[in-house]
Design goal:
Layout lengths: L3 E5 L4 H20 L2 H15 E8 L4 E8 L2 E3 L3 E2 L3 E17 L2 E16 L3 E8 L2 H15 L2 E5 L5 E3 L1
Parallel strand pairs: 6-9
Antiparallel strand pairs: 1-2, 2-3, 3-4, 3-5, 6-7, 7-8, 9-10
Helix pairs in contact: 1-2
Keywords: Membrane, Transmembrane, Transmembrane helix
Length: about 160
């Protein structure tokens, strides 16, 4: 049995249930209404129920960015580089919403977990809005890869023991 680390962006229960209802109703639409609209509904249901994230296979030393729908993961495996350290980084995530000619922007605080290798190159393996969750995941990677954690969430960076 392979040893995997999988982190997926969470999908709310309401959004997932709504996707399932649309998916089931789409078969009625395909059978009795319009096949084209039914397939459009299926694609919308898949969009609502899907998520993205990262998966690491510790046995094969490979990783992949995954797109997941109902616990089925899709993605291409790549060799894992020799990581030097983990950085928990705080940044801003901007989102723009346009509706009826008006637009607005929202900005949220987001925490990224980057694994650095070959000096300054990095891969972002996880994204969350919760600082505690970010450090929990970073500690999991620390145990798996045997590397140190750099706390870059404050102005002054520090190593986590």
């Amino acid at each position: 049995m392979s040893d995997f680390i999988t982190y997926l962006k969470p999908v709310s229960l309401f959004k997932r249930l709504f996707g399932i209802v649309i998916f089931v109703f789409a078969f009625y639409v395909i059978a009795y209404q319009s096949m084209l609209f039914g397939f459009f509904m299926i694609s919308f249901a898949v969009y609502l129920s899907s998520t993205e994230g990262t998966q690491v296979n510790l046995d094969n030393n490979t990783y992949r960015n995954v797109w997941s729908i109902f616990a089925i993961h899709f993605g291409h495996w790549k060799p894992t580089p020799k990581f030097d350290y983990i950085s928990v980084f705080k940044g801003k995530q901007k989102q723009r919403v346009n509706s009826l000619g008006a637009s607005t922007s929202f900005s949220d605080e987001v925490f990224l977990i980057n694994l650095f290798y070959e000096g300054n190159r990095h891969k972002t393996f996880y994204r969350t809005f919760d600082k505690e969750d970010a450090f929990k995941v970073a500690k999991h990677f620390k145990l798996a890869f045997g590397i140190d954690i750099l706390d870059a969430t404050e102005r002054e960076q520090k190593w986590v023991l």
